Amino acid sequence: MEFRRSGQSNQRRRRVLKDDPTAAAEEGSVEGSSRKGRGASPLRQYSDHALAEHQLRVTDLIPQRPWTYSVLLLSGLFAIVMTQTLFLHHSLAERIVGRNNLPALDPTRSGSVAGWISSMLLGLAAVCSVLVFSLRRHKIDDYRGRYRVWLPVAAMLLIASLDASTGLHRAGRGLLEIVAKRYGQGASLGSHPHFWWVSICLFCTTLVGLRLAVEMRRSRAAVTKLFLAFACYVSLACVEWNLLVPGLGELTIVAGSAARLLGDLCLCFATATYARYVYLDAQGIIAARRLAREKKRRDAIAEKLARKQAAAEKKAAAAEAALAAKAAKVGAAISASDKESPAVTNVERTEKAAATAKPGNGKSEGNSEQRGAAPQQAKPGPLAGRGSLAQAPPPDVEDDEDDEDDDGDTSLSRSERRRLKKLQRRDMRKAA
Question: How far apart are CA 371 and CA 394, in angstroms?
Fold first, then answer.
């Protein structure tokens, strides 16, 4: 009996666990813990933060914020200033350590601090060039593959970095001097080999700079920094040609070293700035900013046009108000004059009505002699004492007034209407 009870209870427990997934999960975890306890080792010994999706990418090394560029720029300038300051005051250290024990402070020697800083800047510029290449090769509209220029540029920058730290350029200068002595006797090449070496270096730098300027033309900040670097390299060439601060000893060395370091710093920042531009352009941020600026410009133009239109409407409204005020003023003057002489206007209206109703004098003759006779004066009316207003108008005036009254008939000309009026008056006289 007890065996059956235990079997029934176990069967009921299996049904409950089958219906409840939470309990099944708990049971699985318990089984897993028991297996681990028996000696099973886990497959991973690091947390999820060590996974690849949580690690920094190479493009994350590109500075994104302006204050980061400001800090880096100030750091580079501080390093350059400190290097030149230590060289100017190296005599104090030489008294303590020894004159030949501080070659690191002399920018003209290999392995100096200035050479190391220049090598680091050129190396960072090469890294930025590789990052630009890795992003630019995915550009859709670059059908001719202009992005490939960044690989030779990166190689040149690496060679320049190696030369800055080891002084490899001295080998090329020596080779040019040997060629000048052997094949350039009596020519300018033989007398000025150093001048031609600096000229060749400046020419190559100019070609590379122009090609990079064409590549960076979409980023104004990068192009500006590139031209600043070129200006620094031109200043370095002028110092090497003894065109700037000639014959000043240590100041000449400081000027040349500072010009070279500033040129390397500007070149590094130019490549870094363009790498940032390419990264933001690949993410669509540059296009969004361009659309925002275009929308802002259109809104400014629309607002300007709206202001001009509002000013024109205001001016037109002011002109209309001035015309209305002028018309009101003229109307007020006319009404005032009518109020001053109402009797005269009534007399004129009465005389016009009488002349229209009775064109003759009452005893007119129907022959042709009457037309040539002088017109008879009208009988004096109740207003005969008012002078010329009491006299009847002559026939011509009556004709003109009749013409004015008949202006509504526009089918006949003025002469025809006048002739018809004369005929009507003639017939009325004959009938009388």
Answer: 13
The Cα 267–Cα 228 span in angstroms is 8
* Rounded distance between C-alpha atoms, residue 386 and residue 366, angstroms: 33
Are the beta carbons of 106 and 87 closer than 8 angstroms?
Answer: yes
Q: Residue 406 CB: number of other CB atoms within 10 A?
A: 16
Closest listed residue to residue 205, CA positions, set 178, 224, 223, 232: 232
Burial zone of 121 (CB within 10 Å; 0-12 exposed, 13-18 middle, 19+ buried): buried
CB-based contacts of 46: which residues, under 8 Å, 6+ apart?
A: none
Q: Which two tokens stand for residue 387?
A: 């002078």
What tokens does 115 get? 């050479």
Residue 384 belongs to what H/E stretch? none
Q: How far apart are CA 117 and CA 83, in angstroms?
A: 9
Q: Do residues 402 and 421 lie in contact, with contact meaning Cβ atoms separated by under 8 Å?
A: yes
> Cβ–Cβ contacts within 10 Å for residue 112, how many?
22
20 DSSP 8-state letter? -
The tens digit of pLDDT for each residue in 210-258 reads 999 999 999 999 999 999 999 999 999 898 888 876 667 778 888 889 9
CA distances from 128 to 59, 148, 150, 277, 306 (A): 10, 14, 10, 12, 48
Burial of 227 (0-12, 13-18, 19+ CB in 10 A): middle
